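Encode chain A's predicted structure.
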Amino acid sequence: MSYYGSSYHIVNVDAKYPGYPPEHIIAEKRRARRRLLHKDGSCNVYFKHIFGEWGSYVVDIFTT
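Encoded structure for chain A:
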């Protein structure tokens, strides 16, 4: 009998994320990919001033 009892089944897990089912790992990777401000402080959005226009515009370097 396992620690969790006989009614629970062990699922395949990634060694990097022990205890999480694969669906959770995939969702976590997608969420991390969409992050604008990364944990190291880098950002995939920057501000650019266009001459002749008033104000600054946000430019997303991955969609332009």
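The first strand starts at residue 45 and ends at 49.
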